[in-house]
Amino acid sequence: MADKPSRALVLYGDGLARSVDPSNTHIHSLASVATCGFLSLPHAPPESENERIVREFSHLLDASEAYTIASGLKAKGSEDKISTLSERFMGLKGALVTDSSSLTSFGKLIGLDVLQLSEICQKSDDSFPSDATATELLKLLGFEGGKCLDVTLFDSVFVHIDGDNVGMIDSLIGSIMRMAQPGSEIAPRLHISVVLSYGFVTDKDVSVFNVKTSQEGMNLAFQGLVPRQSYTMRGEKTRDDVRDYCPMLVAQWQDAVTRKDLVDTLSFEALKKLSGNLVIPADRFIHEVAFKLWKAPKYGA
Fold first, then answer.
1. Which structural domain range is residue 168 located in?
2. Of residues 195 and 217, which shows the higher confidence score?
3. Please, what is the average pLDDT of the chain?
4. Each residue of 114-132: b (16+ CB within 10 Å) or e?
5. Alpha helix (H) ranges present in 153-267?
6. What CATH number is associated with residue 251?
7. How many Cβ atoms from other residues are within 10 Å of residue 210's Cβ?
8. Dihedral, CA atoms, 172, 178, 183, 187, nearest 10 degrees?
């Protein structure tokens, strides 16, 4: 545990998990020093792509209740029941950086300050665009000129990147890791999370990207004794809508704070075999991040 609250940068590659390949060296380099795992999502209803984007993001912030209200799935008048992130997490100041108009509306609904990703990228110079963009993002968290300022605009910044932009995340990670090298003033205060989702899923994905442990070959007499995995539970109640396939991939790193596991590449196969965190529900992610910011109690062990 750090001796001061951290500040969190979350790079969310929406639908980009399939696009990562060996050439994305910075993504894999981060995974190799991070603690990694899966974030399980519930089964999806029939929905448009814009609805999927907002719904999955809402789970990352444990704000699915707000999503159902905003989507008109709950009775009119329930809008007053929507709690902001600040109200739920001890005054947490959060920002969302995105070019998605539907996500912009939802972010504002749950109390996030919303900034345009394209505008931040436009401040970049021609030679090192990722360095300039990384610099702007770190400034939002009070990191400037290699220093950690006492006053910061935000405790946490969520950067939503979709489309064919896995290269952008890769180069951003490279720039940020250079600026937050171990031994720097920034490194022990910056908590980085990289989250990659699969986006729209198909029937073929059910068997290819399944996190459920196979019970093939197990003696039938013992199959009923296998306990339910913790990600399928909420408290003492079973989560009946857990999707066992196409979870989000997550890697988290903070110098001298997070534990390193055995993962060396950010891929489904590597995480299933070697990750330290295994599977947690996606709606617990924000609680894990908020704990590092001293804005929430520890989730889990």
1. 7-207+235-292
2. 195
3. 88
4. bbebeebbeebeeeebbbb
5. 166-179, 205-208, 220-223
6. 3.40.720.10
7. 16
8. -10
Q: How many domains does the chain have?
A: 1
∠ Cα 2 59 210 (to 5°)? 95
Distance CA 248, CA 47 (A): 19
| pLDDT at 299 (0 to 100) | 65
How do residues 124-180 score in pLDDT, each as one tens digit?
A: 555 567 899 999 999 999 999 999 999 999 999 999 999 899 999 999 999 999 999
Neighbouring C-beta atoms of residue 236, cutoff 10 Å: 5
The first and second tokens of residue 251, run together, are: 């890697």
- Please report where in the chains the tokens 């060296």 appear, as a residue: 25
- pLDDT for 155 equals 97
Query: Is 15 inside a domain boundary?
Result: yes
Q: Alpha carbon of 252 to those of 161, 243, 266: distances in Å?
A: 17, 22, 11
Q: Count CB-CB contacts under 10 A for residue 238.
A: 11
Parallel, antiparallel, or unpaired for β 190-196 and 7-13?
A: parallel
